[in-house]
Amino acid sequence: MESHARSIAKAISYRVLGSASTVLIFYVLSRDIKMSFGAGALDSVVKIGIYFLHERLWARISFGKPKAPEYEI
Questions:
Q1: Are 40 and 22 in contact (CB under 8 A)?
Q2: 38 part of a folded domain
Q3: 35: which residues sit within 8 A by CB, 6+ positions away?
Q4: Is residue 24 part of a domain?
Q5: pTM for this one?
Q6: Could you report the per-residue pLDDT of 7-54, keeping only the tens digit for each?
Q7: Does residue 34 belong to any structural domain of this protein?
Q8: Sign of the dihedral through C-alpha 45, 53, 26, 29
């Protein structure tokens, strides 16, 4: 099992890598570095919000969750 610190570091590095690829793609298409960094920043904010909503929705879905025992001794 991984530590919480490792999971957080992986999540941050993944988000940085994702935003960097957005900046690069946007720059290749637009040739405007300022707008590309703006798109990368917006990408991070929007995707963090979407991920939060995604997690909250999945918290309400019982698929794959272990079931509580019917009785306890």
A1: yes
A2: yes
A3: 26
A4: yes
A5: 0.70
A6: 889 988 999 999 999 999 999 999 999 999 999 999 999 999 998 999
A7: yes
A8: negative
